[in-house]
TrEMBL record:
<dbReference type="Pfam" id="PF00842">
    <property type="entry name" value="Ala_racemase_C"/>
</dbReference>
<dbReference type="InterPro" id="IPR029066">
    <property type="entry name" value="PLP-binding_barrel"/>
</dbReference>
<comment type="similarity">
    <text>Belongs to the alanine racemase family.</text>
</comment>
<dbReference type="GO" id="GO:0030632">
    <property type="term" value="P:D-alanine biosynthetic process"/>
</dbReference>
<dbReference type="InterPro" id="IPR001608">
    <property type="entry name" value="Ala_racemase_N"/>
</dbReference>
<feature type="domain" description="Alanine racemase C-terminal">
    <location>
        <begin position="251"/>
        <end position="377"/>
    </location>
</feature>
<feature type="binding site">
    <location>
        <position position="150"/>
    </location>
    <ligand>
        <name>substrate</name>
    </ligand>
</feature>
<feature type="active site" description="Proton acceptor; specific for D-alanine">
    <location>
        <position position="51"/>
    </location>
</feature>
<dbReference type="GO" id="GO:0005829">
    <property type="term" value="C:cytosol"/>
</dbReference>
<comment type="function">
    <text>Catalyzes the interconversion of L-alanine and D-alanine. May also act on other amino acids.</text>
</comment>
<feature type="active site" description="Proton acceptor; specific for L-alanine">
    <location>
        <position position="272"/>
    </location>
</feature>
<dbReference type="GO" id="GO:0008784">
    <property type="term" value="F:alanine racemase activity"/>
</dbReference>
<comment type="pathway">
    <text>Amino-acid biosynthesis; D-alanine biosynthesis; D-alanine from L-alanine: step 1/1.</text>
</comment>
<dbReference type="InterPro" id="IPR009006">
    <property type="entry name" value="Ala_racemase/Decarboxylase_C"/>
</dbReference>
<keyword id="KW-0413">Isomerase</keyword>
<feature type="binding site">
    <location>
        <position position="320"/>
    </location>
    <ligand>
        <name>substrate</name>
    </ligand>
</feature>
<feature type="modified residue" description="N6-(pyridoxal phosphate)lysine">
    <location>
        <position position="51"/>
    </location>
</feature>
Length: 377
């Protein structure tokens, strides 16, 4: 990242507000990622998937920054997320709820100007009923299942859906959509299968345009773009496709404070269960973040932190609020109480950390805790 961050790390040895470290979210990098994805899909447009608090990075800040960049379509998963986000964005931003109409909250959805992604024939009928009862035409997106079997209108219900749309004019279908199950695997045959199915559906609903690609789908080529792409992870700097270099810019940096250092002889047990035993004299630092801060226990004896590019392996089990790292590779006295080490940054990406943890980048980002000093740049 920029020199400013490095400077503050070198000089600032305590963390403001009693936090355990700094979670830095680079809104300018986020914006550049949005621009990049937009230009790849052009003339289609890019939406932003901001579910789960924008993958843990803050839905309000992220959505406002992307709105300023020209984004007008925002997807959340749950209705509660739409209710929270609605007042944060201008009226000409549209918020879509991927999980669809929520039982009991259909009227509130219509009232709030929130667009449901309709996932079944029943939901379509319900949304029509609401529209008739309030005597207003209501917007909706129709999602079709093209082979993921998760959400969306089933193949056997398509003709009934088409019939419903022909006989009632109370729903304004903004576009139709589907979701790719294997978009991050460039070579997966499932991508072509789902594309073929999406084309059959588009032929059955010729009046409506298509939204198809998530982050990975954007990199599968133009055929997958439709009129509106729905990137999530790529906006936040995660790799959209496996097995190739990540074209996106990192958005998140995480620096954690050292809370204690010690030197121990060979044969010393480290951490819960005493599972790690030092092989020789070892210098250790305990840093102030653990699994309650989103650094999973599966990093025990596997992951690492970095200092000035030097890898500092995690030793022993990750605790709830701390973990211990081996700092023997650094000159003695380099780290002391209050020093910051890098967990995500120039030397370790979110995908690197996820790999060490046996997880995916999405899980790391959405788990980042709330005890950090969050700064938006
Ligand atoms: C989460 C989600 C996305 C975004 O996926 P990424 O892989 O993060 O780009 C897009 N569409 C739907 C339906 C989703 O559920």
């Amino acid at each position: 990242m920029d020199g400013g961050v490095a400077d503050f790390r070198a000089t600032k040895l305590t963390v403001d507000n009693g936090a355990c470290g700094y979670l830095t979210i680079d809104l300018a990098a986020l914006g550049r990622n949005y621009d990049k994805l937009s230009s790849i899909v052009a003339p289609a447009r890019a939406a932003a998937v901001v579910k789960a608090d924008s993958y843990g990075l803050g839905a309000s800040q992220v959505s406002k920054a992307l709105y300023a960049r020209g984004c007008r379509h925002f997807f959340v998963a749950h209705f509660i997320e739409a209710l929270r986000l609605r007042p944060q964005l201008p009226d000409n931003a549209t918020i879509f709820v991927l999980n669809g109409l929520q039982p009991g909250n259909e009227a509130a959805c219509a009232e709030g100007g929130i667009v449901p992604v309709i996932n079944s024939l029943d939901q379509l009928r319900q949304w029509s009923d609401i529209a008739r009862s309030i005597q207003r035409r209501l917007p909706a997106v129709l999602q079709f299942d093209t082979g993921m079997s998760r959400l969306g209108i089933a193949p056997e219900d398509r003709s009934a859906v088409a019939g419903h749309l022909q006989t009632s004019d109370d729903i304004d279908i903004l576009f139709i959509m589907s979701h790719l199950a294997s978009a991050d695997e460039v070579d997966s045959g499932q991508n072509a299968d789902q594309l073929a199915e999406m084309r059959r559906i588009a032929a059955e609903f010729p009046d409506h345009e298509v939204s198809f690609a998530n982050s990975g789908g954007i990199f599968l080529g133009e055929d997958f773009h439709g009129v509106l792409a729905r990137p999530g992870i790529a906006l936040y700097g995660g790799a959209p496709s496996g097995g190739v270099a990540n074209p996106m810019e990192a958005v998140v940096r995480l620096d954690i404070a050292v809370v204690q250092t010690r030197t121990v002889p060979a044969g010393t047990h480290v951490g819960y269960g005493g599972v790690h035993v030092t092989k020789g004299q070892t210098r250790l630092a305990t840093i102030a973040a653990g699994y309650a801060d989103g650094l999973p226990r599966s990093l025990s004896d596997r992951g690492a932190a970095y200092y000035n590019g030097v890898r500092l392996p995690i030793v022993g089990r990750v605790s709830m609020d701390s973990m211990t790292i081996d700092i023997s590779a650094l000159p003695e006295g380099t780290l002391s109480f209050g020093s910051l080490v890098e967990v995500l940054g120039d030397h370790q990406t979110v995908d690197d950390l996820a790999r060490d943890a046996g997880l995916i980048s999405y899980e790391i980002l959405t788990s980042l805790g709330h005890r950090y000093n969050r700064q938006y740049r």
